[in-house]
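Please fill in the sequence for the structure shown.

STRUCTURE ENCODING:
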């Protein structure tokens, strides 16, 4: 029972954050697997005009899919909270719904990884190294902001 209560508090906090930032908060939870094909990145990566256009197209298609999945995750979290707010909420139903939300999160992670690999295919070896280094930098920055960098030795 204590575990369910702790879990409920965590879900409530995440949902409350979702109320304040909805889509923005949802999208921030996605691991930073992409770059926006801005002029800065075109020059940093040394992209040709053709590569830049291709990257912009891939990014746009990816964002559409990722944003949709992200919003489904947030909606699922809200549904979990609503289930727990009901008197006599069944733990099994709540956990089943949590499993559904988890499956969406897994789908999102797979989409991010697929996108990174797809972008990487269109880059030279040197460009890929720069691209992946940028992603690593973003991930480490997120970890530091969360305050868990000590736990992973960063």
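FILLED IN BY: designer on duty
SEQUENCE:
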């Amino acid at each position: 029972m204590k575990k369910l209560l702790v879990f409920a508090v965590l879900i409530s906090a995440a949902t409350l954050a979702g109320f304040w930032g909805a889509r923005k908060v949802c999208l921030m939870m996605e691991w930073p697997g992409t770059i926006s094909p801005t002029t800065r990145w075109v020059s940093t990566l040394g992209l040709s005009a053709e590569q830049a256009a291709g990257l912009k197209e891939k990014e746009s298609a990816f964002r559409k899919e990722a944003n949709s999945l992200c919003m489904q995750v947030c909606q699922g979290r809200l549904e979990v909270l609503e289930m727990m707010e009901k008197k006599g909420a069944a733990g099994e139903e709540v956990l089943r719904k949590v499993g559904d939300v988890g499956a969406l999160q897994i789908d999102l992670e797979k989409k991010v990884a697929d996108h990174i690999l797809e972008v990487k295919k269109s880059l030279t070896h040197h460009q890929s190294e720069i691209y992946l280094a940028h992603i690593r930098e973003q991930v480490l920055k997120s970890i530091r902001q969360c305050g868990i960098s000590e736990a992973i030795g960063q």
